[in-house]
Amino acid sequence: MTARSVLAIPLIAAALLLPVGPAVSAEVKVLTAGAMKSVVLALQGGFEGASGYRLVIDNDTAGGLVKRIEAGEAFDMAIITPAAIDGLIGKGKIVAGSRVAVAKVGVGVAVKEGAPKPDLSSVDAFKRALLAAKTVTYIDPASGGSSGIYVAGLLRKLGIADEIKPKERLQAGGYVADKVAKGEAEIAIHQISEILPVKGVTLAGPLPEEIQNYTVYAAGLSTAARDPNAAQAWIDYLKGPAASAAIEGRGMSRP
Questions:
Q1: Do residue 185 and residue 111 come from a single domain?
Q2: Is the pLDDT of residue 1 over 60?
Q3: 165, 136: one domain
Q4: Domain for residue 16, yes or no?
Q5: Could you tell me if 44 and 66 lie in one domain?
Q6: What pLDDT score was predicted for residue 38?
Q7: CATH at 137
Q8: Rounded mean pLDDT of the chain?
Q9: Cβ count near 198 (within 10 Å)
Q10: I want to staple 184 with a disulfide (CB 3.0 to 4.6 A). Which of 85, 90, 106, 179 is the partner?
Q11: Within a domain: 134
């Protein structure tokens, strides 16, 4: 054995004792429904730093995500509504038993920053506020957004759908409060977690409790996940304390 070989032995032994992480940072493709986007983005850095994995985030309405998954789009995990997750489990797209509820959020009303806040103390007060507004915006129900589907049904239930229709400024997805910030609508009705991040608007308050609608979001693991351990690590992170703080800080709560 040469002197060089003898010197190399301790170096090899030391290398074998080093902690082993992922040889290559695995990517986790996350499909997330609208209201969870701000939470996912807030948690991204902490998760990536702690795990060594990298999140690739794509956002859409709940209905839009279901259509994309059913059409065969590749993904590693999804955050949608429990009913949507269950439907995808039945179609073999989500792993049975992987569903976990992570957050819930109610619907609120937004107005332009500095504008008077409408009275939301009762159902009648809410109706008067909408009828008095020149323009109203919410998610287009046709896009599959859960809040838009609920609001459209609520307007019919309250008997004011016909009066509101001419002044609707529907949006296919994203932050509908942006229309208020840009002066394109006077009042926005959307999930609270999607109102708070928008600059230039103020959350006037939640819908009255009698007509409030809470949407629960659940995570599920893709049956075709490229690295199931990486995707599961992200799901586990969503159940932890860091996620709880991010969820509560964005107008949401644990289910």
A1: yes
A2: no
A3: yes
A4: no
A5: yes
A6: 87
A7: 3.40.190.10
A8: 91
A9: 21
A10: 179
A11: yes
Neighbouring C-beta atoms of residue 51, cutoff 10 Å: 20
Are 196 and 116 in the same domain? yes
Q: For position 9, what pLDDT does the model report?
A: 47
CA atoms within 13 A on the CB side of 246: 22
Strands 77-80 and 107-112: unpaired
* This model's pTM is above 0.90: no
pLDDT tens digits, 67-113: 999 999 999 999 999 999 999 999 999 999 999 999 999 999 999 99
CA–CA distance, 59 with 129 (Å, rounded to integer) = 31
Contact 96, 89 (CB under 8 A): yes
Query: By residue range, what is the domain housing residue 207?
Result: 107-211
Please report how many Cα atoms fall inside a 13 Å half-sphere around the Cα of residue 199, on the Cβ side.
Answer: 0
Report how many domains make up the chain.
2
* Average confidence (pLDDT) over 218-232: 97
Distance CA(24)–CA(40), nearest Å, equals: 22
Asked if residue 17 has pLDDT above 50, the reply is no
What does the block give as tokens for 74? Answer: 């590749």
Q: Are 215 and 69 spatial neighbours (Cβ–Cβ below 8 Å)? A: no
Residues 142 and 163 in one domain: yes
Q: Could you tell me if residue 206 is inside a domain?
A: yes
Question: Residue 81 in contact with residue 217, Cβ under 8 Å?
Answer: yes
How many CB atoms are closer than 10 A to CB 218? 25
Q: Is pLDDT of 15 > 50?
A: no
